[in-house]
Every structure is written in C-alpha cells, then in structure tokens.
Design brief:
Layout (H helix, E strand, L loop, with lengths): L20 H13 L5 H8 L5 H13 L3 E6 L2 E6 L3 H14 L4 H10 L3 H16 L4
Antiparallel strand pairs: 1-2
Length: about 140
C-alpha cells in the first residue's frame, strides 16, 4: 500500500518551515525595504501563499521582541527593523538567558564552549565595555 506524502503519487504538501524561519524571512524583507513598509508589502516579498494575518502575527511577535518598530500611517502601521542581524541574535540570547533560573551556570556553559578566538574576542569586548564611561 502506497501512502500519499511518503513518496506515493498523492498530492504533495508544501515544505513546513523550520522554527524561526518565518520570522527570519519577515525580518529580512524589512531590512531589504530600506524604509518603513506596510504588512502587505512584507507579505508580497515573503510569499503570496502566506496569509496576511500570519504576517501580522509575525510582525507583532517581532515587535514584542523589540526587533522591529512601527508607527501609525493613516489607518494602518508601517514597520521598520529596530536592530540588525547581530542585534536580533543578541536579543534572542538575552531572552534565553532571562528564561533560566541559574544564569551563572548558563553563562559558564556558554563561555566554556567558545573557541579560543571567540573567547579572546569576548574578553576584548568585555575589557572595552569596562573602559567606557557610565551614563
């Protein structure tokens, strides 16, 4: 017996996106825009098969993560990236760290897993941060 979706001749389903992939695609579209854009523009760039409500959900999640900003323009919003890719990755890292009870253990595990070059870079960055005047 041949089952549809497992190499049979039945209709194939679209590939399911990986966790975070859709957020990354929406964020990339915003970065490519070069200025404020509405959700319909993002939907058009990310894919016509994507529902407008899905795009709005992703944009709202990115707003909650402080990865994007929005402002009212007429009766709707326009959206802009608030951070670059490095800033977005840093936000994700802070979110993970904030969700853990033993921050010291998480940071210790992270640092011991770094390559020699990354550890050196981290030490340099921490040293630079110590040298900066406080506000």
């Amino acid at each position: 017996m041949v089952r549809a979706g497992r190499g049979g001749s039945g209709p194939s389903r679209p590939r399911r996106r990986g966790q975070g992939e859709l957020e990354a695609q929406v964020f990339a579209a915003l970065r490519e825009a070069g200025g404020p854009v509405n959700a319909a523009w993002v939907q058009e760039r990310v894919g016509a098969d994507l529902a407008y409500t899905t795009v709005m959900t992703i944009l709202t999640r990115l707003l909650a993560k402080k990865a994007v900003t929005r402002r009212r323009e007429g009766r709707s919003f326009v959206w802009m990236p608030a951070a670059d890719e490095a800033g977005l990755a840093a936000l994700r890292m802070r979110k993970v760290l904030d969700g853990e009870a033993d921050r010291e253990a998480v940071l210790a595990s992270f640092v011991t897993g770094l390559s020699v070059d990354d550890e050196r870079l981290l030490r340099e960055l921490l040293s630079q941060a110590d040298d900066e005047p406080e506000d």
